[in-house]
Design a protein that fits this description.
This protein has a 6-stranded mixed sheet with strand order 3-4-2-1-5-6, sandwiched between helices. Helix 2 (18-32) packs across helix 5. It is of the alpha/beta class. It has 5 helices and 6 strands; from the N terminus they run ααβαββββαβα. Strand 3 (76-77) and strand 4 (80-84) form a beta hairpin.
């Protein structure tokens, strides 16, 4: 027997019903209100999240990037530091970690964050990403 997730109707998932708008906007508002925002992933999705947060008037001083492999990434993106997640351990109870990686890597990243004690995490799924795109238009 499949999970509830396996019964999702792709036509509904890709639509623009009010439920999806509310969900996507709520996630973005939750992230925006956090004292420290760690965007886990410095690629395309992470950089889209950064642009979205800046568009929402988030201060750059409270935004940070985390990556798995620091050697394969820039040291800064738009003057925001890019470091391994361990550099942010002091905020593991208070920071919002935004998992901004491709879907196939999200579970692995969430496991890493849980093992390291980060308690506030959200994932940039398709619905959140659509909300981000609408804000950036």
């Amino acid at each position: 027997m499949g999970t509830a997730k396996s019964f999702e109707d792709e036509a509904v998932k890709s639509g623009s019903c009010l439920n999806q708008q509310i969900y996507g906007n709520s996630v973005l508002n939750c992230v925006q209100e956090s004292e420290h925002i760690i965007i886990y992933g410095a690629g395309k999705i992470g950089q889209e999240m950064l642009l979205c947060l800046l568009n929402l008037r988030c201060l750059k001083e409270k935004i940070f990037f985390a990556v798995i492999d620091i050697d394969k990434n820039k040291r800064q993106i738009d003057e925001i530091p890019v470091q391994k997640i361990d550099a942010y351990q002091k905020w593991k109870q208070s920071a919002m970690v935004v998992v901004a990686v491709k879907g196939q890597y999200q579970f692995e990243v969430l496991e890493v964050l849980e093992k390291k004690g980060f308690v506030e995490t959200v994932v940039v799924d398709d619905i959140v990403r659509n909300s981000m795109r609408k804000l950036l238009k």
